[in-house]
Amino acid sequence: MAVHVLAVLAYKEGDPVTSSCLAGSVNTNPVIIRRLLLSLKRARLIETRKGVGAGSRLARAPQRINLAEVYRAVESHDTFKSPSRKPDAGCPIGNCIRKTLQKVFESAESAMEQDLQKTTLADVVQTARETCMGESKRAV
Question: What's the CATH code, domain 1-65+121-140?
Answer without folding.
Answer: 1.10.10.10
